Amino acid sequence: MSKQTVGIVGCGKISAAHLKAWSRLEGFAIGGVFDVNRQLADERAREFSVGRVFETLDQLIEACSIVDVCTPPQTHAVISRQVLASGRHLLIEKPVVTEVADWDSLVELVKRSPGKLAVIHNLKFAHSVRQAKQWVDQGRIGDVLRIQREFLTSATTDRMLVGDKHWSHKLPGGRWFETLPHELYLTHWFAGALELDHVSVIHTPKAPAGAPADEVVAVLRGDHALATVHFSANCEQNRRVFTVQGSHGQIVVDILGDQATLSTTQDAKWKRAVGQQLLHAGRTLLHAVPDRSRYGLERLRGASPHSRAIEAFALEVQGRGEPATPFEEIDYVVRNCDRIGRAIDQQLMALAAKGHTGGMAN
Ligand SMILES: NC(=O)c1ccc[n+]([C@@H]2O[C@H](COP(=O)([O-])OP(=O)(O)OC[C@H]3O[C@@H](n4cnc5c(N)ncnc54)[C@H](O)[C@@H]3O)[C@@H](O)[C@H]2O)c1
Questions:
Q1: Atom of ligand 1 nearest to the CA of 160
Q2: What is the pLDDT at residue 308?
Q3: Are residues 167 and 292 part of one domain?
Q4: Residue 163, helix vs strand vs coil
Q5: 12: in domain
Q6: Same domain, residue pair 78 and 177
Q7: How confident is the model at residue 362 (pLDDT cuts 50, 70, 90)?
Q8: CB under 8 Å, gap of 24 or more: what pairs does 40-43 form?
Q9: Closest atom of ligand 1 relative to the 159 alpha carbon
Q10: What is the CA(31)–ligand 1 centre distance, in A?
Q11: For ligand 1, atom 18: residue with the closest CA
Q12: Which of 55, 65, 221, 264 has the most beta carbons within 10 angstroms of its beta carbon?
């Protein structure tokens, strides 16, 4: 069987994870790369021994059956339109668009195109998140009552918050829009389609250029569960945590460490005396030892959330797997990213009107 050829559009930071993943997959060959910055494209091509650097997007589309887009979100709508119109398969980094109107027009093209579409919702493929989902599906924590997502970072550790020139700063809601898809597809996966209830924002004197709303809390609400998302640009801890509280237990997922812990300890007087935290720590340690070994082995084999997400799409393209990102999940993420991003900007404007933003221009 002849190999499917993959073209990578955009040769910045995340493209390395894509090239690594495709080069491990049987039945697929990297047909070439393209970047508006030719030097970056040449460097990536050398690094991954890719034979061809295309001069234009047209050339890449012509030569490849799968187009994998790793450019900034502001460019996604135009590139996607061209790819879908050509009938090629489209894999694209999140956020898939920055305007809902663009998504609506892409949906029409998706319906007509013979090509498949998937968005990189990679955290669904993280070792820890899969473990957490398995626990939830097994009923280990009972009914899901609440999801709590913390993305608490600072310019010291978050490359996208550094300086005042990164493309993410110009997105609706600033830098947070870039990560919002993760928060939304995870919430959707664990608690279903919740509705945005409200967004609260402050602008402190420390707010960096990329996140003028440097503390943000968004609340989503469903019939059975609530979710909160907290963004901070002021936290040196760099906490990226996802907590699922159930009626019988709690799962905490440390996204950066890719580790999930389960607590099903029920309250009892003797446990209070021993120390609930101590009992939990003991159980966590017992689980952590085999878990870290499994995780280490997977990393040694080169598996990552990106590689698994891309593998899922590869199987879908070959007609051997379910959709890597179901349509309703993408649709939910796009529409709620838009709502939250715009709510952040509106709140900032309201704060500015009241003089609470130190004269910050909006
Ligand atoms: N899924 C994840 O965990 C994850 C992590 C990081 C980034 N991302 C996403 O990946 C995308 C790229 O992020 P990045 O950090 O690699 O950005 P980056 O700025 O490092 O790289 C983007 C590249 O795209 C090129 N480019 C810009 N416009 C182009 C165009 N029209 N045609 C061809 N090339 C073009 C730029 O020259 C640059 O080399 C973004 O959508 C981002 O949100 C996802």
A1: 15
A2: 97
A3: yes
A4: coil
A5: yes
A6: no
A7: very low
A8: 40/11, 40/12, 41/11, 43/11
A9: 15
A10: 19
A11: 12
A12: 65
